[in-house]
Design goal:
mainly beta, 16-stranded mixed sheet, 12% helix, elongated
């Protein structure tokens, strides 16, 4: 009986606290608090209702994340945030379902998603973004656009899954993979995108007193990586590999393309390996297009090699080109 009494003395206050906390989350005051968590120096967001289910999750209806110019970046009908009821101002994880995500690359590698975070006017002693854990996206529609080239590149993907993480101590990371269109040969396009703006700094006791470690642009490394699977090549997409002597206009693309910012030249450095099947390209020394061409494009930090073959006048033709990286970087 004595042990039962002690157990009740602990259990009953805890139960009352949980009931009170659950009631608090259902009030307009918590919605105002949650809005402050998301918006104050962190995200530019709007949402309708918020409600608790279970003891560690809240559902957010009609979550909209915009850039600082008011353009839509994430539009989700439903989002679920995992919380600890003892620290309800900390969102450990956010899962977003059936959303539309708009990702746009502009000149100078300026991405719209970099501008969903409000810049702090004063130096803070803590990182407010640490209030939000990783954001996971499930079964989304991703609209990717690149306006940094002469002709705009567009690509939409469905059934996209991925995650987003942003913190001053770690940098920015977006990973997504989804499906595109169904090709004429019944193969399905798949495309993976990784945008990584990581901080090149070691985290240690000494680094805690380094005032510029998380704010210096020189310490940020930018990586934009693509994983192509049976992706239909267009002339616009071919701008990612701007070669002086050939223009890739069509075909089916497989392989990986990694673009890394060279901090010395302020240009993007391509590496990876790509395979083009049944391609169409124009060559500076040939009048007209060459079709049904198969090519392998190998890119290293030193050079880019293209090994291609096709048929002209019922005779096999081979094309072997070697480019220095400096020529390519100046065009990216």
């Amino acid at each position: 009986m004595r042990y039962l009494k002690k157990s009740l003395m602990v259990f009953i206050p805890l139960l009352l606290a949980l009931i009170a906390l659950k009631y608090y989350i259902s009030t307009p005051h918590f919605k105002s608090t949650l809005t402050s968590i998301l918006k104050t120096n962190v995200l530019n967001v709007e949402f309708d209702k918020v409600r608790l289910y279970g003891f560690d999750k809240i559902q957010i209806d009609n979550l909209k994340v915009k850039d600082l110019s008011g353009n839509m970046v994430i539009d989700a009908k439903k989002a679920v945030a995992k919380i600890n009821l003892l620290t309800p101002t900390r969102l450990n994880r956010i899962d977003i379902y059936n959303a539309t995500v708009n990702l746009e690359r502009r000149k100078d590698n300026d991405f719209n998603i970099f501008h969903i975070m409000k810049k702090e006017k004063k130096v803070k002693t803590f990182d407010r973004t640490s209030r939000i854990g990783k954001i996971f996206v499930h079964n989304a529609m991703l609209n990717y656009a690149d306006t940094s080239f002469k002709e705009k590149i567009r690509k939409s993907m469905s059934s996209v899954n991925g995650n987003l993480e942003s913190a001053k101590s770690r940098g920015f990371l977006l990973v997504a993979k989804g499906m595109g269109n169904l090709n004429a040969d019944n193969t399905l396009e798949t495309l993976g995108i990784e945008l990584n703006q990581k901080l090149n700094s070691e985290q240690s006791l000494k680094s805690r007193f380094d005032k510029i470690k998380n704010s210096s642009e020189k310490r940020k490394e930018l990586h934009l990586n693509f994983d192509f699977g049976n992706v239909k090549v267009t002339k616009e997409l071919g701008q990612y590999l701007p070669l002086e002597m050939i223009i890739i206009k069509g075909g089916m693309l497989n392989g990986k393309l990694n673009l890394t910012k060279n901090e010395v030249t302020e240009t993007m450095e391509p590496t990876g390996n790509l395979a083009v099947k049944n391609g169409i390209l124009s060559y500076i020394d040939f009048d007209g297009d060459i079709d049904k061409i198969n090519a392998n494009i190998n890119m290293t930090k030193e050079n880019i090699k293209i090994d291609a073959n096709s048929m002209l006048a019922q005779k096999p033709v081979s094309l072997l080109l070697n480019y220095g990286q400096k020529k390519i970087q100046n065009l990216l």
